[in-house]
Every structure is written in structure tokens, then in C-alpha cells.
Amino acid sequence: MRETVGLALRREGFLVDVYGDGVTAWSAFERNLPDLAILDVLMPRLDGLQLLRRLRARSADLPVLMLSSKGQEFDRVLGLEMGADDYLAKPFSLRELIARIRVLLRRAALAAEGRESPPERRLSLGPIVLDLDRFTATVDGREAGLTVSEFLLLAALVRRPGHVRSRSQLLDEVHAEDDSVAERTIDSHVKRLRRKLEAIRPGFDPIEAVYGRGYRVKEV
């Protein structure tokens, strides 16, 4: 499967390196991070979740797509909570894999744009400042290290403080190009967002869950 996926991606014009186990892959990533990583949960020597943890410690922005033969919701949610940007259960079609890769790379390209934002391209709420052009978020002036999905979710909430947004509405904001993502994914994103915001300002939790409705940010 590894060789098949590599061949298919090369035919689409991607430059691809493949590795037979997690340790070999990590050795390569330590030298040079790729533009996107595809990790199998059940890789030998160092499994996909362990490798994902190491990658996230090094880069919050690297797009990571997880593969698993299990297809269980627990695996999907755990991978997303640990920082994966997308998740695909085997068996899958190569066409779907390539489509998801292109979506992740487009998001990463938007986030990597380095131009300065004019004032009207910023959102703020209390200590939170969101740069809508550079896809960066700061709390008390410190970079929060959000993934693109986390940034889009926070921006959707900050645009309308005090207003409840349903999981379905937030899913449209975060994963508009992928209708296969479950609403439960929003809960995973919110968990990670809360963790990152509180890491900068202990006790700061502006995101409020509204039972049976969705989420909102408190007006600060």
C-alpha cells in the first residue's frame, strides 16, 4: 500500500519519500520537515500516533493526515485531539486521498502567506488577536500555535461573540470542502483550542458549550 500510494502521488506531480517504519520516518523528519505527512496508525517500531506527537512538538503547522485500518471512532477522535488535520480509514480510494491532500495543502498555503495584514483584516476579543491573512492567533501577544482548522473555528466564534454556533455551522466554516467529516470533530478541535489558550493564560477559557446547541465565545 505504501508503494501504491507513493506511485499515485508521484503521478499527480508530488515529490514523495516513503518510509517503512516510524523510526526511519522520524530520522528523516528531524533533518527536514516535509510539506505534508501521511502517517499510518499501525506503523512498526514507532506507531503513527507516537510519530504525530513528535511532529506536533516540532511544528504546529505541518499538515498531517492519518490512515488507519481500524476505522473506529476512538482512533479518529484520538488522532484529531493529538493534532492530526485529517483522518482516512482503510480501505480508501486513491482519488479521495489525493483530494484530501490537496485541501490540506491549500489550507497550509493560506496559513503560510507572510504578508502583513491591514487593521480591517484582524479580529480581536479581549486578549485574543486573530490575523486573518497570516492565519495566526495570539493571546496576550504570545503566539498560540493553532492549526488551520483550530484557527478557522476560533475565528468563526470570535466574529460573533455571545452568539451560539451549532456544530454543523462550525463544520461548514472549518471543513467546508470535505462533507465526510463528522460533527464530533468540532468537539476535538474545541478541546485542543482550550488547551492551547490556557497554556498561555492559565484559567482563560472563553469558549462556552451550550447544551444541545453548540458553542459560543463569551463577550469579554
Describe what you observe in this structure:
The protein has two domains: 2-112, Rossmann fold (3-Layer(aba) Sandwich), CATH 3.40.50.2300; 119-217, Orthogonal Bundle (Arc Repressor Mutant, subunit A). The chain contains eight helices and nine strands. It has helices at 2-11, 22-31, 48-58, 73-81, 94-112, 148-158, 167-174, 184-200; strands at 37-40, 64-68, 86-89, 122-125, 128-131, 136-139, 142-143, 207-210, 214-217. It is globular, with a radius of gyration of 18 Å. The protein starts with a helix and ends with a strand.
Name its key features.
single chain, 220 residues, Rossmann fold, Arc Repressor Mutant, subunit A, 3-stranded parallel β-sheet, 43% helix
* Count of alpha/pi helices: 8
CATH topology of the largest domain: Rossmann fold
Tell the overall outline.
Answer: globular
- Secondary structure class reads alpha/beta
Tell me the total number of β-strands.
9
CATH architecture of the largest domain: 3-Layer(aba) Sandwich
